[in-house]
Amino acid sequence: MRILGKATMSKPIWEPSAKRVAQSNLTNFMAEVQRNWGVETTNYSQLYQFSIDQPEKFWSTVWEFCGVISHVRGEIVVRDKHKLPGAVWFPEARLNFAENLLRRRDDSNAILALNEINSQVRRLSYKELYNSVSKVAQALTAVGVSPGDRVAGLLPNIPEAVIAMLATTAIGAIWCACSPDFGAAAVLDRFSQVGPKVLFVADGYFYNGKKFDTLDKVRKISAELPSVLKLVLVNNLGNLVGTVALTRVVTWDELIDPFHGEEIDFPQFPFDHPVFILYSSGTTGPPKCIIHGAGGSLLENLKGQVLQFDVKRGDCVFWWTTTGWVVWNLMLFTLACEAAVILYEGSPLYPSASRILDIAAKHGATFVRLSPKFIEEMAKENLEVKKSHDLEQLKTITAAGGPFMSEGYQYIY
Which of 107, 163, 169, 172 is nearest to 135 (CA)? Predict the structure, then answer.
């Protein structure tokens, strides 16, 4: 086969087994569509066309199949669907974003957290995660955070970032974040637009075999954010010396010590209630705020995780990312699938290009997100992954974030 003068493959380089196809979430979803609506969807193309032709039926089936938790869904799926902008999805629904990500509460692993320096793994069970979110949610409410207020994080990819985000959205406030490697000016370009009431920061972060102190940067940032009522300092490097110069500051432990892990009330909000503020790159002027609503984020990413990535209860998902990238937000919908997530703080190439796969093999990752650049580096180092790593549990690899050349596919397969 040739397209525009270029040779292409006429045969797929990989196909799933018949058993995997039969057991996939997507196959079960297509069967659900056929049962519910009498529509023939025996292949992906038919399902895709169904989602276009009958969006109300498609998205209501996604809602039920993925088990969205809500006090009310309502009868109306979409109002004014042909208006863009102007369409309103699930206008009668009332739900809580965080409740959907905290649906599991047993002793199984919810989070496995690692960094470059420390060989120990921090493990949080679903029960521990829920209790930690409960404490921080109570603390935020005590500070004076209300629905619609903003809470910001200048944190590395550590459990405290996940807990703070979930606590923020649990009480109806809006989460925004920057990675701690951002400069002070870049952080202020973003956070000054939203006026956060609480700012979570770390004393530093790990990258490429080094520790980076962020306290001087935090002093500059906090001085320019008069909206901040409380600055919460996470002891990530063990370097809290000099924090007396900071105002409005409490440590993470001081914030949560007065509270106990109680049942979370989970107030219910409209489908489009905002939960995240993300930012454009800032390459054509100041970064633009991009608001993401609870229901749309939840449905779209459950669809992606469950149907397209085939994530299931008990899986272990590993996306390398930082907190300032949308990938961090996307990764955490894993929790709504009742699967565990691996958090890694540091360079994916330190001390070698095998680092991500070392972690995946050791902790039984079933899903790994790589980047084309990372795959190129593995190929350059001539890593023979099949010989060097036991990836028996690994079911899915995705590669995104840049152009992926045919050589990359050939290397992977």
Answer: 163
